[in-house]
Specification:
This protein is of the alpha+beta class. Helix content is 27%, strand content 24%. It has one domain. It contains four helices and eleven strands; from the N terminus they run αααβββββαββββββ. The strands form two sheets. It has an eight-stranded mixed sheet. A three-stranded antiparallel sheet has the order 4-7-8, with no helix packed on it.
Length: 186
């Protein structure tokens, strides 16, 4: 009887170990770096600084120093509407993110780019930082993989659709200082 049960017990122990490794990989330093660097092409992410999202003290922790001026952030823990929100940001997008955390308009001086190539989340097109669930007027939509583009002059966004679409670019946060163009990618 033990000869028959031993392989089953061994398989159960192995599956439990793999599950704990998988869960740890999402929160370990190496897991966070892996999550963050998948958000952009390797040509950018391989030399990017990787930071973790702010903790209770409001400060980001550097997980890995980089050399190309880009910063990549890992996905936050999954929620009902979000599975992956890892991103890589150029200097203009780093300013944009800092301004959002500080509740001030961003100081954008040139075109900026951010990658979210592993994005798999639902969110508001009008209030992506604050809305937690759909409402009749927040343009709740599925955000798959995309590139985000900032422009220093809001007039540049004139004529770009403001309703979310997977068929082409659209403006997120239209009419606010944080408006930017979302470019869905496959």
């Amino acid at each position: 009887m033990w000869r028959r049960l031993l392989p089953v017990a061994f398989a159960g122990v192995c599956l439990t170990a793999l599950a704990s490794i998988s869960a740890e990989g999402q929160t370990s330093r190496a897991g966070k770096i892996a999550s963050a660097t998948k958000a952009a092409p390797a040509s950018i992410s391989r030399n990017a600084t990787v930071k973790d999202w702010p903790g209770k003290d409001g400060k980001m922790v550097v997980l890995r120093e980089g050399s190309n001026g880009w910063v990549c952030l890992p996905s936050n823990p999954p929620t009902k509407y979000k599975k992956n929100d890892a991103m890589c940001l150029d200097a203009q997008w780093q300013e944009w993110l800092a301004s959002a955390f500080e509740n001030r308009p961003p100081r954008i001086t040139q075109v900026g780019y951010a990658y979210m190539l592993t994005a798999d989340e639902w969110g508001s097109n009008t209030d992506p930082m604050g809305a937690k669930e759909p409402t009749p007027d927040n343009q709740w939509h599925k955000q798959g993989p995309h590139v985000m583009v900032l422009y220093p002059d809001a007039k540049t966004l004139t004529g770009v659709p403001t309703r979310p679409s997977t068929l082409g670019p659209y403006v997120m946060m239209a009419g606010t200082p944080h408006a930017h163009v979302m470019w869905p990618v496959r």
